[in-house]
Amino acid sequence: MVVDRALNSPMACGGKVLCIYLILAHAVAASSATVNSISIYWGQNVYEGSLAKACRTGRYAMVLMAFLSVFGSGQTPALNFAGHCNPSSGDCADLRYDIIDCQSMGVKVLLSLGGGAGSYGLSSTSDAEGLATYLWDNFLGGSGKTSLRPFGDAVLDGIDLDITNSSSSHYDDLAHNLTSLYKGDKGGRRYLLTAAPQCPYPDASLGPALATGLFDHVWVQFYNNPSCQYDPGNVGNLKSAWDQWAQALPSASVFLGLPASSDAAESGYIDPQVLVSQVLPVVNRSTNYGGIMLWSRLYDEASGYSMQFTIKGTNASDPPSGSLIPGGSGNAPLANSPTSPGNAPLANSLPTIFYDILPCFRIN
Ligand SMILES: *[C@@H]1O[C@H](CO)[C@@H](O)[C@H](O)[C@H]1NC(C)=O
Ligand SMILES: *[C@@H]1O[C@H](CO)[C@@H](O)[C@H](O)[C@H]1NC(C)=O
Ligand SMILES: *[C@@H]1O[C@H](CO)[C@@H](O)[C@H](O)[C@H]1NC(C)=O
Ligand SMILES: *[C@@H]1O[C@H](CO)[C@@H](O)[C@H](O)[C@H]1NC(C)=O
């Protein structure tokens, strides 16, 4: 299981610019609580809609394409985007347009390695080196001669590690090797290295990699782990784990990784209002608090979780889809999704004001 989060950068509204804040909903009092930024995992269920559509909501600073689920130990690396497209027949190539679209809206798009299923593991230093080069040539700034570049000339913004199989070998090498390749980019472009450890500290799979201090953003999964996640009414376990993570990663921004609905994980779901009143005030004391990560776009689309917050610094270019507007006609197609039975539309149960930020318009 994976979680994800977001990033932030202030929305530029300088000069003769008119910013329109559209108040979409209604309802009672609310938290117009602000979240620094939100990152989100996309790619494991076709019912979540396209990558570009996710970016167009303007709610996410970073989208993690899930997953490169086969790699290492002599295996040919393989992508898996569930029902979105079939990598082996080449029909994921059109994702290049979505990636470019997302980036033009200011959303960073990363490729996530690992996931809860698949077959992966690094067997040696040279295995790590080989994978780093493969990733650089196929998805980032490199251009190996034999490179197939699944997304053509689209250049991703970085690599995310969601390693869950408790074998931590050589991911520290991978982090070192990716970082050196990043630094060699001819155009001086900047790439990100991110990771999604689980909340028990240190992480069984990513501990040594994270100890390199080379990661930009780390989204810690505070779910499916009762020992360190939020316990209804008691933020103590989460707080102790959070403080450990935030202190251990001074050079990274640390995100609170959460399920985007109660169906998105076995445990660890936090109601948005509880998040705002009990949890955010605890985690945002850390100077390296970065925002929240959500697993996943599928669940966020259905629940409207991310819509409960004002998000600092994202470009919102589209109003949210009609199905998510409270009082609207309900949250469509998820309920029929085979992997997420019985998703209840959160939006209708939460008395909250929904803000969405439309782009700024020049008025001169
Ligand atoms: C918003 O989008 C513009 C390009 O349209 C980009 O230059 C800018 O960095 C983006 N801002 C944020 C906060 O993502
Ligand atoms: C986990 O990693 C180990 C070490 O590389 C590997 O042997 C094993 O097959 C991996 N398991 C899965 C499910 O990928
Ligand atoms: C990869 O990283 C390891 C250290 O973890 C280092 O020994 C090796 O030289 C690196 N390889 C390259 C090609 O940078
Ligand atoms: C921390 O979160 C609380 C609750 O959402 C908010 O009121 C406060 O302004 C936040 N502080 C910072 C520094 O973000």
UniProtKB/TrEMBL annotation:
Gene3D superfamilies with a match to the protein in the record: Glycosidases (3.20.20.80)
Signal sequence, start to end: 1-33
GO biological process, one term: chitin catabolic process
Annotated region (Disordered), positions in chain: 317-340
Alphabetized CDD domains for the sequence: GH18_hevamine_XipI_class_III
Catalysed reactions, semicolon-separated: Random endo-hydrolysis of N-acetyl-beta-D-glucosaminide (1->4)-beta-linkages in chitin and chitodextrins
An example Gene Ontology molecular-function term: endochitinase activity
GO CC annotations, alphabetized: extracellular region
Domain GH18 per the UniProt entry, residue ranges: 36-318
Record Pfam families: Glyco_hydro_18
Keywords (A to Z) from UniProt: Carbohydrate metabolism, Chitin degradation, Disulfide bond, Glycosidase, Hydrolase, Polysaccharide degradation, Signal
Keyword Hydrolase annotated: yes
The EC number(s) this enzyme carries: 3.2.1.14
Domain of life: Eukaryota
Protein name in the entry: chitinase
Organism name: Paspalum notatum var. saurae
